[in-house]
Amino acid sequence: MQRGISIAVLGAVLAAWAAPRAASAASLAEVTGFGNNPSGLRMFLYVPDNVKPHPAVLVAVHFCTGSGPVFFTNTEFASLANQFGFIVIYPSATRSGSCFDVSTPQSLTHNSTSDPAGIVSMVRFVIQNHGADASRVFVTGASSGGMMTNVLLGDYPDVFKAGAAFMGVPYGCFATTDPSLWNPTCANGQSIKTAQQWGDLARAAFPSFTGPRPRMQLWHGTADNTLFFPNFGEEIKQWTNVLGVSQTPAFTDHPQSSWTRTRYGGTGIDAPVEAISVQGAGHVLPLAGMAAMAIQFFGLDRDPSPDTQPPGAPTNLASSNVTASGAVLSWTAATDNVGVTGYRIFQQQGTAAATQIGTSAVTSFTVTGLAATTSYSFFVRAVDAAGNASASSSAVAVTTPGTGGGGGGTGVTPSVAITNDWGTGYCATLTVANNTASAVTWQVSITVQGTVNQLWNGTFTQTGSTVVVNGIAFNAVLQPGQSTNSVGFCVTR
How many CA atoms are closer than 13 Å to the CA of 129, on its beta-carbon side? Predict the structure, then answer.
């Protein structure tokens, strides 16, 4: 099937696909300058008059030959926004044919350089400028927009909480190097893979992502001859695999006589995957009442349960690049039931109270403003979108070197990395580096939270939280540029 014929079919079928919706006092407004937009999309925004504080966000993506304003007028999402107080973003494709890019390598990756990147910029604009809830962002779309819904959930599982794809295809199914962006094998329902293969394809878009994956609702007509019905079954394979649930339905019912709904991984409205086939329907979805079911699947028809669960504590906090005035801290990302939004970094000296010295959206932080030859302790807490803070990470001790050269310990750089933490104690390695131009017999001071119960390849004395460590015969003297990482210790809290 040629792409030009397909667009004509879509335009002819979808132009008369829904009746205009009733207008309200609020109106659709175009937004420009919303951020990174590599493919020149246009952004249209609908904010209802009764928008809720900290509102949820729905991205509603149009079909080929359509536009954001057409999708606004001819679907029920705006009227549902009026009813439930969420914000709707209507992206518009601007290339010939007005299809979205769901085909190129540039679109099928996290931090893409095509249409998905522009759509995510729209979301971030609304979160920043309208106080929207970053933990309640959803996407839906029809045909090309249904395919884009699949793509966005694969590319940006960190942005979207759930999707509802009307007449879509699995993530990556439309991949092609053909400049037309049309993939007839996929469109005709002839791209058949195992659930594992489809799942791996979606996960490959963002392989380092370890958070919860978005839920998915799928819709398809059994008589669809533009994006054929077998794509519906392939989507079910993909998203059940991505979400780690059985392909055997846990629940089946008929919301209307010609609709068959199956749920996977759960029997309730919050099931990970929900799929609705429409007997005898062609490429004409969503029909009346379907948008409301998508909104119900997202939970936009009810107030969200407050998130009171804090994230887990960050782990493996370590220091590096220690200088006389600073250091770099790094750690392993924390996990959360909704999502971690950032980290708070704390500094402590001796028995003084810890103070927060900064925040970070990533798993590292550069500490500045330290004093030379001084011992510090640092720890990190994770924070989620609801403001819940985790317990503290294990502390890392840092002793800054002096600013000059010479022996007697001056000019060495110590760093501590925790290797094992079991809650009531931990073990760590101590690395000491000679940054001077002459040999150094080293001595360093570190701060610990607890009592050192053993130390190897060195000697130590402890006073309160301060531990002074010296080398022994084979490592006491460090030549210029030399370091020792053979010293280790364990602490009981």
Answer: 14
Give me the helices (H) in 30-92, please: 68-73, 77-84
pLDDT tens digits along 159-180: 999 999 999 999 999 999 888 8
Residues 136/56, Cβ–Cβ less than 8 Å: yes
State the DSSP string of 227-281: TTTHHHHHHHHHHHHHTT--SS-SEEE-SSTTEEEEEES-SSTT-SEEEEEETT-
Closest CA to 12 of 290, 284, 288: 284
| Cis ω before 286 (30° cut-off from 0) | yes
What would the pLDDT profile of 211-229 be if each residue is shown by its tens digit?
A: 889 999 999 999 999 999 9
Q: Which of 20-24, 210-214, 423-427 has the highest mean pLDDT?
A: 210-214
> Given 3-state DSSP classes, what are the helix, strand and coil percentages for the chain, each rounded to the nearest 5?
20, 30, 50
Give the mean model confidence (pLDDT) for residues 7-12: 42
pLDDT, greater one: 470 or 155: 155
CA angle centred on 38, ends 36 and 43, rounded to 5°: 65
Distance CA 138, CA 214 (A): 9
Dist. CA 139–CA 116, nearest whole Å:
12
In tens, the pLDDT along 179-188 reads: 888 999 999 9
Q: Highest-confidence range of 219-223, 310-314, 386-390, by mean pLDDT?
A: 219-223
Taking the C-alpha atoms of residue 152 and residue 216, their distance in angstroms, rounded to an integer, is 11
Catalytic member of 6, 39, 143, 465: 143
Beta-carbon contacts of residue 136 (< 8 Å; ≥ 6 apart) = 56, 57, 161, 299, 300, 304
* 407 band by pLDDT with thresholds 50, 70 and 90: very low
Listed residue (20, 85, 97, 29) closest to 57, CA to CA: 85
CA–CA distance, 478 with 414 (Å, rounded to integer): 12
Task: Please state whether beta strands 375-384 and 57-61 pair in parallel, antiparallel, or not at all (unpaired).
Answer: unpaired
pLDDT of 7 strictly over 70: no
Are 165 and 190 in contact, with CB atoms under 8 Å apart?
no
Mean of pLDDT values over 196-219: 95
| SS3 category, 195 | helix
Cβ count near 178 (within 10 Å): 11
Residues 423, 449: Cα–Cα separation, whole Å: 12
Angstrom distance (rounded) from CA 459 to CA 457: 7
| 325 catalytically annotated | no
